[in-house]
Amino acid sequence: MRTYALLFLMVMLSGCAESDPYRADGLWQPTGANAGNLAAMVANKRDLVVGRGHRTPRGSLESDAVERLWQGRTYPLGAGGTGASAPGGTQGRGGS
């Protein structure tokens, strides 16, 4: 009886490999993209110590948006709610 139970258990467990998400067809497969990105980032060893900045600072764009939010002078969203309206766009500005 133990032999049959063990045989049954082995047959049942052999089906687990088919449900493994790394082996199933049509699902995400690991591609090694992370290793490639890391290799590209450290191609220049100096980047590990110093790094690189942006050529043009963008801080004022983001800080202006936060200031408008705190002051209650936000711009209205576009028709789809995607935030498509922006300064200089076709829609008017909200607030005071």
Which descriptors apply to this entry?
mainly alpha; 41% helix; elongated
Annotation field: number of helices: 4
Helical content class: 40-55%
Radius of gyration: 28 Å
Strand-residue proportion? under 5%
Uncertain ranges: 89-96
Number of strands: 0
- Report the end-to-end length measured between terminal Cα atoms: 84 Å
Structural class: mainly alpha
Major beta sheet summary:
none
- Helix and strand pattern: HHHH
Mean pLDDT: 74
- What is the molecular shape? elongated
Written account of the structure:
With about 100 residues, this protein is mostly helical. It has four helices and no strands. It has helices at about 1-15, 35-40, 45-50, 60-70. The protein is elongated.
